[in-house]
């Protein structure tokens, strides 16, 4: 693997020819820098960065299984929004758009000290990549709190959060066209398409788990959302209905009213289709329908149908990965599909 010359690294880089190092985020010339010999899409400053990314950055797992900056998507200036990310090609629903390791992490109640300590250990290129994030004049803690994303469950020290430099450039939409999940084993965040995405379309994520949460967005990020869910009354009503139905399935299931719970679940899936809701919600609702449908023999077959549907979605989403936690959920669904009698709800309302 040949390294870029110092002259190449020092020369001003054309925006369209610039890509970040896959390990340290240093800006590199796309046309002449070293890159992964397998996927040919991930660039590096030198062999040290490539080896580190293969191990710590988990490129060994993700090589060729997700999009890469400069080839499949690009960070650009977007009018009225500052930076943003656009698709350089089309993405199919559930396709992995990008993956990224967290560069900093912290429990939300731990304060600034752990973040500052970790920051000092980073390379100059990594530090510059973080300091370049929004808000432009903010200190390190403000940049982290504004741009960090959840990385698992909450405990007594708060939510485990991580900073992902490239994903931090994604702008918000309550009806985002992408969603993400965190791989604790790989310490990576994976971004995938919620629906088909066209070339040139801006990639967006939802900053809040509660759609149309205008007050949170204003206080935490300093902007008023004007996406369709916030500006279109008809769509806003559908978003509200999704939240209501999701809660209703749980209540009806506890009341053992399986027929009404199944109807609510079917309505929920229809709304997911209309609004291109994330795959995880589809899978969870299919599982919810399964849990209530197997309460009675009359709806057992229907329950198995939705378990099969949810399993297929889960398998497609995590295809090609060997991450234990994800394989565990797939194995659980497959087991219930084969042996529904092993579930605690099996025929309890005969």
TrEMBL record:
InterPro entries: SET_dom, SET_dom_sf, SET_domain_protein, TPR-like_helical_dom_sf, Znf_MYND. Transmembrane segments: none annotated. Pfam families: SET, zf-MYND. GO terms for molecular function: zinc ion binding. Residues 21-63 form the MYND-type domain. Keywords: Metal-binding, Zinc, Zinc-finger. Residues 71-208 form the SET domain. It comes from the Eukaryota. This is MYND-type domain-containing protein. It comes from Guillardia theta (strain CCMP2712) (Cryptophyte). The lineage of its organism: Eukaryota, Cryptophyceae, Pyrenomonadales, Geminigeraceae, Guillardia.
